[in-house]
UniProtKB/TrEMBL annotation:
Keywords: Acetylation, Cytoplasm, Leucine-rich repeat, Nucleus, Phosphoprotein, Repeat. SUPFAM superfamilies: RNI-like. Ribonuclease inhibitor which inhibits RNASE1, RNASE2 and angiogenin (ANG). May play a role in redox homeostasis. Required to inhibit the cytotoxic tRNA ribonuclease activity of ANG in the cytoplasm in absence of stress. Relocates to the nucleus in response to stress, relieving inhibition of ANG in the cytoplasm, and inhibiting the angiogenic activity of ANG in the nucleus. The lineage of its organism: Eukaryota, Metazoa, Chordata, Craniata, Vertebrata. GO terms for cellular component: cytoplasm; nucleus. It is found in: Cytoplasm; Nucleus. The gene is Rnh1. It comes from the Eukaryota. It comes from Bombycilla garrulus (Bohemian waxwing). This is Ribonuclease inhibitor. Signal peptide: none annotated. Its main location: cytoplasm. Forms high-affinity heterodimers with RNASE1, ANG and RNASE2. Gene3D superfamilies: Ribonuclease Inhibitor. InterPro entries: Leu-rich_rpt, Leu-rich_rpt_Cys-con_subtyp, LRR_dom_sf, LRR_RI_cap, NLRP_innate_immun_reg.
């Protein structure tokens, strides 16, 4: 049984009712439920008496250090079989790390620990690492985003990595590490026996200076499939160094996030080579980089290569205009693998989207999710979009937010949604003005087609 409740204020009677249900649950998720340390006392008892419980998710609750202390009493009981523990944004400090260290040292069933967005600090995470180094610890996933960590944490973290061959996922995003610490971390990862699959280092103060060491991790850890270094100023020179590792035959990268990395069209030559030759690569995010039309045209040429297996491309806010849309359309009509295209916040205009629709309509195109928010669109392109919606049965998600479509455009989209051939399940229409009559039409449409969700 699974209990999954979010954003609900818990009255005493409701909590008492849920406690009865929890006694037989395998999964309990109670994010944003205004829980406190007193609720944790009850949850500790549930952990102790429900051996089938394997996942506990309590994100965004004011549990505090006292609440975690209660939880850990249950986690330390022999009957506990918990595997996944989520305590993100729970008002924890370094004081919680001592009790969590005891759990890591004594509870081999625990394989995932998510404690991001808590003020653990470097001192607290050093204590957690001591628990990781215990032979009984079998941790596979450790999430430490927004934990106020500094460069000083890396030495003990590397020691933990050396002793933990089970570790598969490590997220340190949004901590002030800097190049020196990231270099040290990467050298430790290369030497460690763990088969790391995911490494997230977003907003860690990285520049091109760290990229050679990150590249070495890519070359030496063939297990690494998911790398995110977004929101770091690596620039074109850093990307060129990363690509040396990414293009290495032993690298098996699948997901690569490079959003807001100060990249320009100069990086697109290397990126194109990567997209056209690295057959393991299925997802790449280049959001908020100044690629321009010339860079996008290079990427589109790579997408047309038969060896490209890319399924998701995120190029939102990349300085694109109508001028690149013919190339994008050509790529859509050629690449059978691409399923998700996020191209919003670019000045594509009606003429650009009409070109995109030509590619969408091609039999080779298998796009499922298309994001066109804030693209300077008007009702003028909605007839083409409506035709694509009604014809292209693979298309299940469409975002048209922040475009002045007005009543005329929305009505054309509604016409397409009403057709039995249209398979769009989610239509996103944030910040678009329409009349009360059109609003009634949208509500009626949702009632007549319960599978369709209109988000506005």
């Amino acid at each position: 049984m699974e209990l999954d409740i979010q954003c609900e204020e818990m009255s005493p009677s409701r909590w008492a009712e849920l406690l009865t249900t929890m006694k037989s649950c395998k999964t309990i998720r109670l994010d944003d439920c205004n829980l406190s340390s007193s609720n944790c006392e009850d949850l500790s008892s549930i952990i102790n008496t429900n051996p089938s419980l394997t996942e506990l998710k309590l994100n965004n609750n004011e549990l505090g250090d006292e609440g975690v202390e209660y939880l850990c009493k249950g986690l330390l009981t022999p009957s506990c079989s918990l595997q996944k523990l989520w305590l993100q944004n729970c008002n924890l400090t370094s004081a919680s790390c001592e009790t969590l260290r005891s759990v890591l040292s004594a509870q081999p069933s625990l394989t995932e620990l998510h404690v991001g967005d808590n003020r653990l600090g470097t001192a607290g995470v050093k204590v957690l690492c001591q628990g990781m180094m215990n032979p009984s610890c079998k941790l596979q996933k450790l999430q430490l985003e927004y934990c106020e960590l500094t460069a000083d944490v890396v030495e003990v973290l590397n020691a933990a990595l050396q002793s933990k061959p089970t570790l598969k996922e490590l997220s340190l995003s949004n901590n002030t590490l800097g190049d020196t610490a990231v270099k040290q971390l990467c050298r430790g990862l290369v030497e460690a026996s763990c088969n790391l699959e995911l490494l997230h280092l977003e907003n860690c103060g990285i520049t091109s200076d760290s990229c050679m060491e990150i590249s070495a991790v890519l070359r030496n850890k063939s297990s690494l499939m998911d790398l995110s270094v977004g929101d770091n100023k690596i620039g074109d020179s850093g990307l060129a160094l990363l690509c040396q590792g990414l293009m290495h035959p032993s690298c098996k990268i699948q997901k690569l996030w490079l959003w807001d990395c100060d990249l320009t069209s100069a990086s697109c030559k290397d990126l194109s080579r990567l997209i056209s030759t690295k057959e393991t690569l299925t997802e790449i995010s280049l959001i908020d980089n100044n690629l321009r039309d010339s860079g996008m045209e290079m990427l589109c040429q790579a997408l047309k290569d038969p060896k490209s297996k890319l399924q998701e491309l995120w190029v939102r806010e990349c300085g694109l205009t109508t001028a690149c849309c013919k190339a994008v359309s050509s790529a859509l009509s050629t690449n059978k693998h691409l399923k998700v295209l996020h191209i919003g916040e670019n000045k594509l205009g009606d003429a650009g989207v009409e070109l995109l629709c030509e590619g969408l309509m091609h039999p080779n195109c298998n796009i499922q999710s298309l994001w066109l928010g804030n693209c300077d669109l008007t009702a003028g392109c909605c007839a083409s979009l409506a035709t694509a919606m009604a014809t292209k049965q693979c298309l299940t998600e469409l975002d048209l937010s922040y475009n002045p479509l007005e009543d005329e455009g929305i009505r054309k989209i509604c016409e397409a949604l009403r057709k039995p051939s249209c398979k769009v399940q989610q239509l996103i229409l944030y910040d678009i003005l329409w009349s009360s009559e059109v609003d009634d039409e949208l509500r009626a449409l949702e009632e007549s087609k319960p599978d369709v969700k209109i988000i506005s």
